[in-house]
Amino acid sequence: MNILVTGGAGFIGSHLVDALIDGGHTVTVVDNLSTGNRAYVHKQAAFYELDIRHARELEDVFARSSFDIVFHEAAQTLVPYSMEHPKEDADLNIMGLLNVLELCRKYAVKKIIFSSSAAVYGDNDSVPIAEDTLLRPTSFYGLTKMTAEKYIQMYHDVFGLPYAILRYSNVYGERQGSHGEGGVVYVFSKALARGMAMTIFGDGEQTRDFVYVKDVVQANIAAMGSQIPSDIYNISTNIETTVNALKEILVYFSQLSAVVSYADARPGDIYRSALNNDKARQVLQWRPKTKFIEGLRATLDYFSEEESQ
Ligand SMILES: NC(=O)c1ccc[n+]([C@@H]2O[C@H](COP(=O)([O-])OP(=O)(O)OC[C@H]3O[C@@H](n4cnc5c(N)ncnc54)[C@H](O)[C@@H]3O)[C@@H](O)[C@H]2O)c1
Fold it and tell me: Which regions in the chain score pLDDT beneath 70?
């Protein structure tokens, strides 16, 4: 199939592009490299350094290819940044998406697959959270992801554009940056590799549902199927892990001694987070295959090697 990946030079997008090309698809990447890395983009992918907010240039890309599927990964991904810059966050996460949706509609794309987030649920203690839970985002980032979901659903209802909305929990793995929601794994791994202090925001007992990037990629690929109903799917492990436990495992693996300090919790951060993945298991026939310790080991090895170069 002919596929566009926006944000395909980023952490999740670049792994997705690799898997799509391995699967024999033709892939185009649009990315402005604001947080992405050109070196992560597979050599066989066509690459356009382009901001999705530039509608005319983006249209040129759509007009040149006839995309069957669009994966929309490009976004402002930082919760703290969204709290300081709500307008910028909305400009990219809503208006940028609308450019993509308009072109999907105009060029009869068969499906859009959207990267949403656990941030749409906000603080909710009844974990693991299922898809039909009331959405109460506590950050502007969560609000723009929620709004983006509603636009996608309305494009489906009004214009018949099929979709899959994938709400990721905290994604971690190789090529991850300090930005993004699973960024804590990167931050701790880098601090360990550099012998620097690790800072935990809050008491460290906040929980996250850490899902490995290559499992997230497989969920995206499963969602491509034309028989998959347009719907919202949590992509997660169902398991809560505390930030303190994450720190302990990484310190144990690295065999390095670590200095840990605690700072005030950041505004907008969720305290408990785990997503129920039953629907993705049943409908997408997907499950997270990577054990946490295996994924963490691979991630830590990757960053240790990067640091030693
Ligand atoms: N990493 C996580 O834990 C996580 C969790 C939930 C949802 N998500 C979502 O998954 C998607 C990918 O996130 P990621 O962690 O890979 O982040 P990332 O920052 O590594 O990837 C985002 C990519 O989009 C590109 N981009 C940003 N603004 C752009 C613009 N205006 N035009 C074109 N390209 C632009 C960046 O350069 C980058 O390559 C995002 O939509 C994010 O909100 C991520």
Answer: 178-182, 268
